[in-house]
């Protein structure tokens, strides 16, 4: 599996907002959206607060491909659903640590948002 290099991961996960566009089946991408993202153990994760009603999450699940950008780093990526409890618990804490005192931070670690977790994996070697 391709991993993020330390510098790029730090630069792309540090800003509050993270630009993401998911690839549609025809190879195009809908409008880029700004969302929260967190890094855990050298990996990058996103969660859809609005689930399938969000502009990016449905296309991301359908294609498992997209593009992310933040901190001067832009990467073509693939998305992988996250289902294991240990990883999800670490992601819950990362959202609290990064986004507190926002009232949305605790909700990012609760259902149904928690079920909408995707790992963001770079397609090209870092």
Q: Structural class per helix/strand content?
A: alpha+beta
| Strand residue content | 25-35%
Sequence of secondary-structure elements: HEEEEHEEHHE
- The helix fraction, in percent, is 25-40%
- Could you tell me the number of beta strands? 7
Mean of the pLDDT scores? 92
Report on the architecture of this protein:
The protein has 126 residues and is of the alpha+beta class. It is 27% helix and 30% strand. The chain has four helices and seven strands, in the order H-E-E-E-E-H-E-E-H-H-E. The chain has helices at 6-13, 57-63, 85-99, 104-107, and strands spanning 18-22, 33-35, 37-40, 43-47, 65-70, 73-81, 117-122. It has a seven-stranded antiparallel beta sheet, sandwiched between helices. Strand 3 and strand 4 (43-47) form a beta hairpin.
Which features would summarize this protein structure in a list?
30% strand; 126 residues; 7-stranded antiparallel β-sheet; single chain; alpha+beta
Q: How is this structure best summarized?
A:
The chain is α+β, with helices and mostly antiparallel strands.
Compile the SSE list and pairings.
Blueprint: H1 6-13, E1 18-22, E2 33-35, E3 37-40, E4 43-47, H2 57-63, E5 65-70, E6 73-81, H3 85-99, H4 104-107, E7 117-122
Antiparallel strand pairs: 1-2, 1-5, 3-4, 4-7, 5-6, 6-7
């Amino acid at each position: 599996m391709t991993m993020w290099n330390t510098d790029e991961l730090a630069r792309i996960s540090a800003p509050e907002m993270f630009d993401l566009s998911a690839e549609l089946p025809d190879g195009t991408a809908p409008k880029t959206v700004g969302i929260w993202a967190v890094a855990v153990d050298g990996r990058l994760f996103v969660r859809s607060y609005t689930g399938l009603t969000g502009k990016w999450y449905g296309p991301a699940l359908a294609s498992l491909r997209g593009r992310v950008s933040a901190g001067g780093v832009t990467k073509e990526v693939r998305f992988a659903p996250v289902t294991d409890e240990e990883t999800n618990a670490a992601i819950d804490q990362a959202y609290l640590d990064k986004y507190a005192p926002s009232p949305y931070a605790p909700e990012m670690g609760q259902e149904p948002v928690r079920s909408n977790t995707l790992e963001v994996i770079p397609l090209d070697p870092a």
